[in-house]
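Supplementary Note 3. Input sequence used for the single-chain structure prediction.
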Amino acid sequence: MGFKRLLASMGAGGASVETELLESNVVPGGVVQGEVRVQGGSVSQEIQGLTVGLRARVEVEGHDDQEFKQNIDFTTERIGGAFEVQAGAVHTVPFGLEIPWETPVSTIDGQDLRGMHIGVVTGLEIARALDSGDLDPIHVHPLPAQRAILDAFIQLGFRFKAADMERGHIRGTRQRLPFYQEIEFHSPSQYRGLNEVELTFVADDREMDVVMEMDKKDGLFSEGHDTYRSFTVGLDSFASTDWAAYLHGWLAEVGGRRNWL
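The predicted structure, written as discrete structure tokens, is reproduced below.
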């Protein structure tokens, strides 16, 4: 028995953990609910605790502008207390994990955005060691205010290009997470001097900052360059604005001054 316990402490024949989400479709500010099932191994074991959290796979800029991917756990909660799981037994713990308001959008109209990897990760604490389970993907749908802005871009003829998450901080925003999302759109022909637009949402429970990075095309006598613009949208008052008209006016204003149009 002593040898079996030693093997179990090393991960051979020990307890395993599996997480089941009751609903994987969520929105920022919502809650993802599920349960963690701990399956006992070949011997009984003392479980010191369970954790659930959210993990995102983000781009990080390293030395010499080289980029690489990194997993970032951006919220973690401890569920339940210490317990003993008997050999072969199953111990189940339900949970409700809050989704931060800044969590990037990963699904629009039932379509997962390429480049978005966000999910629930579970930790099993045994003898001061932490064994992480697999990532259980979640589908983060846009808030109504975010959807209004996205729809406005589509109405203006912009086409979705890609999305990613980047480690870093956007100055002047309410950002708290160590990374942010960029949703990239190809520009329509009516904005002939504009190559693409990158869109970022940074929300809390009342408002969100909308940040646009506008990439100008290379011209005959000038090189392309980026221009940043930002504004704030109330989560409860967004419907009073015609966002397609607002964005068009803004783009036309900037384009006229910078000779895009």
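DSSP finds three helices and 19 strands in the chain. The first strand starts at residue 16 and ends at 21.
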